[in-house]
Write a structure and sequence with these properties.
Helix content is about 20%, strand content about 35%. The longest helix is centred in the first third of the chain and has 15 residues. It has one domain. It has four helices and 14 strands. With about 230 residues, it is α+β, with helices and mostly antiparallel strands. The strands form four sheets. Strands 1-3-10-11-2 form a five-stranded antiparallel sheet. The model has no long low-confidence stretch (mean pLDDT about 95).
Length: about 230
Amino acid sequence: MLKQLLRFSCDVQQGFVRRWVKHRVVDLSAYPYYIELMQPIMPSALLENKLHNIRLGAKQLHLLLWQPKEILSFWQVLGEASQQRGYREGRNIIGGQLQQDFGGGLCQLSSILYHLALTVNLQVIERHHHSVDIYQESERFTPLGADATVAFGYKDLRLENNLTLPIVLWLQVDGRTLTARIYAAKPLKQQSISFERQYGEVEVKVQALTASGRVLADSRYVLGLNKR
């Protein structure tokens, strides 16, 4: 609770509270253009709970109207992922270890938003990568370096619409496929992103790069014991 109060105080001082995304649309007819990302929801322990949590979170984010200069805060939109709010136990990486926690699986939702934001060239105000890489290549739902972990009151994903036009966020879970789109009234510029790795003995560094070589983000992961 103390962390949350301190964070809210900082948000007020920085003027973020006045800039949160607040409104939704009910009709996309005025926004005919979109950029899309799709991800598989990979088989795992507690898969049905993970699917439930992703659907519940996606519903909260779906059709948000994002005006220029407004900030999308993942947790400001979703609120705490508690049992009382309908979330189920799923797998989370906590302290570098896989554990069960309510809201498990929501990191896939924040990760696809982050990757989509890079593609559209939105301003990333806050993003945290996972601390450990535990996945084999066949198990990944997103490229290493395109992830965004979230923890309520502690780690958030915050993105600013730094474009000159309003955009609309659209999310859908169809079977075991998660789709995220950003809609706009005019065509959006889509930039190609690559994620280049540099391996050490116990860690891997990843840079998110544009086609021109501009560095968008640096991430560093401890290699899981199964990868050393």
